[in-house]
Design goal:
This protein is an all-alpha fold and 508 residues long. It has 17 helices and 4 strands. 57% of the residues are buried.
């Protein structure tokens, strides 16, 4: 039997077969518009009220700047390590490692809580079919414990599909995307016309949001909504060109903005702010029930389930490949770069990520309500996403600072827009850190306790710094001497059906 990793005296150029369409599928699935709309609008409404559409438009501005920064860096240095590689080379190895680390940890957290959300959606389906208990166990979609148990099964399924190859995964994701977007657009489009809540232009005015704290918190949550489009850049080694990866990510981002705007307006045409907040993760199911009789009313729930499964799968793909890039540089252990001898996927890393997400999901059962679990996870991930997006945009401004002398257009594209976008996210994150630190006078494991919300991202960063220190002084990773990541073509990942041996770089 061939070993999982075989040595080769030099780098080999891999075969590239993914195109723009595949990049869009991965980025759009990772962003999971249907899931964000279906379970997150109530959370946004808690901060922005009826100005949720305005908040989503406002958050799109810095995110677009970040996306343009990714595209510019990707043209210069395509690499599945993306921000980890670019920040390390442009700013320094410590912030570069931290960028890769928070992406890894953020995706593990996302998979943990999305697994529970997926379980909740499956339970809602079973309830629709008239099944409310099994062996005396109540199948309650609002129960974190039961939802997590079902979600663990979903994690196993998406892990298997991710290991068998990214090409097959993108085909499945494209089919799921088409179905869920058709359902979402039909129901939301219908809601815009028949909803009984009067439309107001104030919904599009961010100045009417109640307070600076609400704007900052809402903006970070909205950034989390958009998070995931950068997954297209994680399959650079499997994409025909760096331009295809950039186009896939940018197209997905613009599509997400349109869907979020239509979804938020549709929800507010059908539900009051109180109803939206009360329904929480079941808001899309409530919308379907308000607009159509059964069985048509269950179609939005089916779309939500497809979105949740697709987002789980598309999250593990870039996470495992980002860890692979870090392992190539010896900043993570060699186990993360073990690839499957037939499918070419980082199989061991994928399994480890699934195991960590499952463990975290089980630990999160201590938070009794699914809504509380979602809010806690989103707050934690939102801060870390703002950090690594900001660092990557800053890396773009630093790397191409010579463009300041090359004319106004290039200076704006390569330096000004990335720098302003980075400062905007850093400012939001800093304000929220201060707000969390001062909003509570005691610690409590609760999503409305500032110290608890601040503890989680702080632990992520401190754990990352400790891991970086181990990589620098114990593992003696060359990355910490140069800040340069391994060349993108230093490993060959065969596509589905290729059973030949896999060359990988020799450590040292």
């Amino acid at each position: 039997m061939p070993s999982a990793v075989q040595q080769d005296p030099g780098p080999a150029r891999m075969r590239r077969s993914l195109g723009v369409k595949d990049g869009v599928a991965i980025a759009a699935s990772s962003t999971a518009a249907t899931t964000s709309i279906g379970i997150g609008m109530g959370t946004l409404a808690a901060y922005a009220g009826r100005q949720t559409p305005a908040l989503l438009l406002l958050a799109f501005v810095p995110i677009l700047g970040i996306a343009l920064s990714y595209a510019r860096l990707n043209r210069s240095e395509p690499n599945c390590g993306s921000g980890y590689t670019w920040v390390g080379r442009s700013i320094g190895p410590w912030p570069g490692f931290l960028t890769g680390w928070v992406v890894l940890v953020g995706n593990v957290i996302f998979m943990a809580y999305t697994g529970a959300v997926t379980g909740s959606v499956v339970l809602q389906f079973l309830n629709k079919l008239g099944l409310y208990s099994v062996w005396g166990l109540r199948l309650d979609p609002a129960s974190t414990g039961i939802s997590t148990a079902v979600g663990l099964v979903a994690l196993v399924v998406v892990t298997v599909t991710a290991i068998t190859g990214v090409r097959a995964a993108t085909r499945l994701q494209m089919g799921l995307l088409i179905f869920e977007y058709v359902v979402l657009l039909v129901f939301c489009g219908y809601a815009l016309f028949v909803g009984d809540q009067p439309f107001s232009l104030s919904w599009l005015n961010p100045l009417e949001i109640g307070s600076p704290q609400a704007v900052a918190q809402g903006m970070v949550l909205a950034v989390f909504f958009y998070w995931g489009w950068d997954a297209a850049f994680s399959v650079n080694e499997e994409t025909r060109s760096s331009t295809d990866a950039a186009r896939g990510g940018l197209i997905a981002l613009v599509v997400m903005m349109g869907l979020f705007l239509v979804g938020s307006l549709a929800f507010q045409r059908v539900m009051s702010t109180g109803e939206l907040m009360h329904n929480g993760p079941q808001a899309l199911t409530f919308l379907g029930a308000q607009l159509a009789p059964e069985p048509w009313a269950s179609l939005p729930l089916a779309a939500l389930m497809c979105s949740a499964f697709a987002s789980l799968q598309s999250s593990v793909i870039p996470t495992a490949r980002g860890a692979l890039a870090m392992a190539r540089d010896r900043t993570l252990g060699p186990v993360w770069q073990r690839v499957h001898p037939r499918y070419g996927s980082p199989a061991v890393g994928t399994l480890l990520i699934m195991a960590l997400a499952a463990l975290l999901a089980v630990l999160a059962v201590g938070i009794p309500k699914l809504n509380d679990m979602i809010l806690t996870a989103v707050n934690s991930i939102g801060l870390t996403v703002a950090l690594y997006y900001g660092l990557t945009a800053l890396a773009c401004a630093v790397r191409f600072r010579h463009s300041l002398r090359a004319g106004a257009v290039r200076a704006l594209r390569d330096v000004v827009v990335p720098a302003v976008s980075a400062l905007a996210l850093f400012g939001l994150g800093s304000y929220l850190v201060w707000d969390y630190a001062t909003m509570s006078d005691h610690f409590e494991a609760s999503p409305d306790n500032g110290w608890f919300m601040l503890l989680l991202p702080t632990l992520f960063v401190l754990a990352g710094l400790a891991t970086a220190a181990w990589a620098k002084w114990v593992r003696r990773a060359p990355y910490f001497r140069t800040g340069r990541g391994t060349d993108a073509d230093a490993i060959t990942l065969p596509m589905d059906g290729d059973s030949g041996p896999l060359p990988s770089p020799v450590e040292g």
